[in-house]
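Can't paste images in this forum, so I'm doing it all in text. The chain is below; anyone willing to post the predicted structure tokens underneath?
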Amino acid sequence: MTTENRWLLPEGIDELLPERAGQLESLRRSLLDQCATWGYQYVIPPLVEFTDSLLVGLGADLDLVTCKFTDQMSGRMLGIRADITPQVARMDAHSLGETGVTRLCYAGSTLQAIPQAVVGGRAPIQLGAELFGSDSIAADIEIILLLLSTIDRAGVDKALTLDIGHIGIYDALFSRENLAPELQQQIFDALQRKSAPDIERLSALLTPDTASKLRQLAALHGDPAVLATAREVFSAEPGVLAVLDDLEAILARVRQRFPDVAVYIDLTELRGFRYHTGLVFAVYLEGRGSAVAKGGRYDSIGASFGRERPATGFAIDLKALVDDVDISSADQPLVVAPDADDPTLLRAIDSLRAQGRVVTVAFEEEAPRSDAQYLVLKGSDWVIEDIS
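Text version of the structure:
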């Protein structure tokens, strides 16, 4: 690399300069505070782990986007986290080992070998909350309401859409079909892309009854009226009807607490890194093609660490969210003090900083700033004045 381009960053990796970094940090603190008011305790998972624990039982999707390297101390393979949720599940199952319901929240950087969204690039900053120890619909409802409350607290100035689906629909329809893993993967992908030609091609490989279910499922996405349509289409499928009951209960609570949030039902949604086992959801902002937050139920991860626990949670991409929030600043102007060792001046500076004011010392080569206030000596006291 020549000196002319040493400043270049790897593709998909960005840096945050003072204004945006300050906005993102303010957002991070505010949203973590919101989680804390709901009883979620803050944890800090490590940036790297042995891949044996970081990826165990999580499938190929997460493995493909995880950056790996050899640990020079142990000779074992390390991975830089691409998703923090599995780490928090390990902490609940192994490090904490608590009984009953555990609520945890976190925030931190991640790294992806291949970007999963346009806005966040390859290094999203992920903030999330996870609830362990309850398989009830009440836990799913709490997580969705907490997610919407955090975005509401952020002051998003765009219309929100909550996208809801459920892995249980697919499982209820196809779990007894003994589909080959490769065929099942193709069906997953076709449903995710809502590719009618691929669904028709795959239907030709299935029995007539299974093919009919696939075509019917592929059409079930749209406004909440889709739930009523699904009841009619799959009236003979008890497993599907039970899931629809849950979705309607969740939707009722969302409407009650957040009536202005639009809802999109997508029964073909199988999102995530393929570790979800039930409800899945995402939040989209008007004008954005990718989600700013995703979540769902994942009851199987804990088993990989020797303690299976029901779990549900969400993760927000702070970089994707920060540009659409109203971070109003009530901060007072910067205070500039002269470079002197006057004890009275130093006490005045310390007092202002203790009050939360930002005070910098002006060196000789610094020009006066029109956006700042200045400490000036008036008699025996140092006072703040505007210098125009």
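The first helix runs from residue 18 to 37. The first strand starts at residue 41 and ends at 42.
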